[in-house]
Amino acid sequence: MRALICDAYGPIDQLQVRDVPVPEPGPGEVRIRVEAAAVNFPDALIVQGLYQVKPVLPFSPGAELAGVVEAVGEGVRHVQPGQRVIGFCGHGAFAEQAVVSALQLMPLPDGMDMDTGAALVLTYGTSLHALKDVGRLQAGETLLVLGAAGGVGLAAIEIARQIGARVIAAASSQHKLDLCRTVGADECINYFTENLRQRLDTLTGGQGVQMVYDPVGGDYTEHALRATAWRGRYLVVGFAAGTIPKVPLNLALLKERAILGVFWGEAVRRDPAAHLANMQQLATWFAEGRIRPVISERVGLEGARDAIARMAARQVLGKVVVRPQQ
What we know:
Residues 10-322 form the Enoyl reductase (ER) domain. Its EC number is 1.6.5.5. It holds the Pfam family ADH_N. This protein is an alpha/beta fold. It contains 10 helices and 15 strands. The protein has 2 domains: 2-122 and 265-322, Alpha-Beta Complex (Quinone Oxidoreductase, Chain A, domain 1), CATH 3.90.180; 139-262, NAD(P)-binding Rossmann-like Domain (Rossmann fold, 3-Layer(aba) Sandwich). Helix 1 packs across helix 10 (301-312), helix 2 packs across helix 3 and helix 8 (264-270) crosses helix 9.
């Protein structure tokens, strides 16, 4: 089979598409014929050895997929060969076949195509886990989303609207903010041309936001933390800016703010039942027309390396889908 392979941790441009053996599922595992897989920011980190998880070399990146079950390992009962599924695999999805834990698969929801299924799992799963399970976002609260035009940012906007929150989207260009408005952002801030803290004070009447969703890190973290309300919650989702910020902890003390880490992949591993319940909620919202992933581009395996590089440079809006069979 063909796969995009990382032979050594290092620059993204070292990734190569080549033939490798077809993987065999072990106990509790399933082999999938991958019809679609989506690019995410952790893909860029994991191939450079910068992610908290380091797979055994060589490996294929790609954390989420949609496809058809080809074979099941010992003990697998709830999926069968021929079934259309979506799932989270952590790595291995940028290949014509991939092996996935059966506990991290669910049937492709009715009415959902493969591309959409592949684009749903990680970004929407992360954002629902962050806002509901970690942050406990409530109806009527105000949420600030940094890096709002990326995959997790757009998902957070849509999910927060389903919860009943007011959403302020922050991004680096008007083009990105226009996209945020199309998925439901109530207010927008261009943090390249506007003062983030001052604009938030204006939009909240000086009261601050109840929650911040931050997949970016970097220079805006402290400004956003200072703009949270009494007992506001700050969700640390990732560091797409490339810098892990250091903030004065007295900012947490002064307003009894909570700084909360979000590690969705580990949460899935520890509590697969809760993950499945969240995915079923997302499937229901999709069927009702309440959420829909924004897919900006589709590429074959040969285009996956470039897509990962553009993701690392923060040049991607929404999701890029890789079609390994193309």
